[in-house]
Amino acid sequence: MANQDLASPLLSPRRHPSDPPHSIVTIHHDNGPPSKQNLRKPKPRTQNHHHRRHNNGNGDNHNCNNRVRGGNGNGSNTHLERPDPFEFLGSGSFSVPAASTVDPFLNHTDKVDGVYEVVKIVLCLPIALVRLVIFGVCLSVGFIATKLALLGWEDKENPMPRWRCRLMWVTRISARFILFSFGYQWIRRKGKPAPRETAPIVVSNHVSYIDPIFYFYELFPTMVAAESHDSIPFVGTIIRAMQVIYVNRFIPSSRKNAVNEIKRKASCDRFPRVMLFPEGTTTNGRVIISFQLGAFIPSYPIQPVIVRYPHVHFDQSWGNISLAKLMFRMFTQFHNFMEVEYLPVIYPLEDQKETAARFAKRASNAIATALNVTQTSHSYGDVMLLMKAVESKQGKPSSYMVEMAQVESLFHLSSLEAVDFLDKFLSMNPDSSGRVSMDGFLRGLRLRASTLSEEIFRFLDVDNYGKITFKQFLFGSAHVMKQPLFREACQLALRECDVGGRGYISEEQLGNSLRVTMMNMSKEEIRELFELFDGDGDGRVSNDDFMSCLRRNPLLIVLFSHCLWHDDSSEAGDRTADEIV
């Protein structure tokens, strides 16, 4: 839908085929058949409006405040005959997919369990000390060799000279001894790496910090890594010698530059092959989560590689377990098993234009099939949500994961925005099962108990449980933000509140606007909402404060629905109903 200026009616009569249908009323002449159909304007809400009624044209009023029948029985929950307080935005019902029962980041042996493990750890303590010494010596030798290889090298935009690469073999051999110190005395391999000119890009599933150490020794590739890795002691120096491609996943320009660098280095045979972990984070190896597209945008042949860590008593995945604890458990094992399998090269389709997403899907299917695991829509964004839930000491942190790849695809909502919504949800004091009651919901949004507040809550409570989950809160909020009229509604509400166009809104102005929708609001209730909108706490709500608050709390836009009715009514003036189109 094209953008509208603030002077034009919000509910424009010109509609595209993709626009949601508006409610229709039929205007009857006193002396003739029905006239043109007109768009229905949203009526202002008051505390006394317990039900919204639509006229069916025959004089019968139908109560839209019907009870909900529950889920739709097909794995998701959907609104059925539920009043929609966001109807003025063109909003319709939305569904919330059933919560996933899979936790891709769960380490299944994070605690020492059983007499056998306890005895083994005790017996391996002297061995662990020896391994720790080997680890320290090898890390130091590799660090010194890398410093010598980098000494005086300034032209890092071009491939590393051969003599420096030969010196890096000292570091690569040290990496193999580091793997030995962690208990990987032998590593089973299947298949062979394809020649660099055949497959300039390699992708792999990511299970542990052991993966990049092995690939550094085996392939010495150029890796794509987070910018934060550069500051890690010892490790940062070594990965710089690999001419690593740094990326900040939260900055679009950084991601774009990383893709350009991948393309540049993959196209030149003088550079090492490019290595990526497209999942973007480590998992427990029991599923494949959504792939990032950086490796697939250049459309070069790709060789998938899979790593497995077979185990009985000790899960070697780097999931919900600290690095120190994982290293200690590795040091105190007799042997840790690792398997690496090189899969056939996957070529981009030449006879048809293939998107990066479809190319990535073929690669993820190949890896998942070889591992014999399922695929999910989780991403690094779910790790961020999980960590936030763990930090706040929630009873079931995994219940706050929402399969962020799916959320980003449906609503174009970033992981950082999802974390902000989780902050808001956690302020509502969820119970041990991760659900929020009506009272907690109202406290979080600074709303008073009213019919309108109840309708907002029931709008989110798609399974009619009486409490809402974070996934329902996130999907409902994102659904409102996605409506084509949401941005225009925010701008129009701002214009109506900012009387005189001074560029800021006082507490009195905000209260006058809110009382139209929610009558009899006390000064304390208005003060709480004013403080919510006053993001910088300077005692007045600037235009940026107002818009930012509505983006963080999109459900609150319903408090300003009367502004839309007032704007359209003032523009209509004395025009007759027949003239309103």
What's the structural blueprint in terms of helices and strands?
Layout lengths: L23 E5 L5 E6 L13 E3 L5 E3 L12 E3 L16 E3 L17 H36 L11 H20 L6 E3 L10 E4 L5 H9 L3 E5 L8 H7 L3 E3 L4 H15 L7 E3 L10 E2 L13 E7 L14 H9 L7 E4 L13 H16 L2 E2 L4 H12 L12 H8 L3 H12 L8 E2 L1 H8 L5 H10 L7 E2 H13 L3 H12 L6 E2 L1 H11 L5 H11 L7 E2 H10 L8 H12 L9
Helix pairs in contact: 1-2, 1-4, 2-3, 8-10, 14-18, 15-16
Name the features.
single chain, 581 residues, alpha/beta, Glycerol-3-phosphate (1)-acyltransferase, Recoverin, domain 1, 3 domains, 7-stranded mixed β-sheet, two-stranded antiparallel sheet, 18 helices, 19 strands, disordered N terminus, disordered C terminus, EF_Hand_1_Ca_BS, O-acyltransferase activity, calcium, membrane
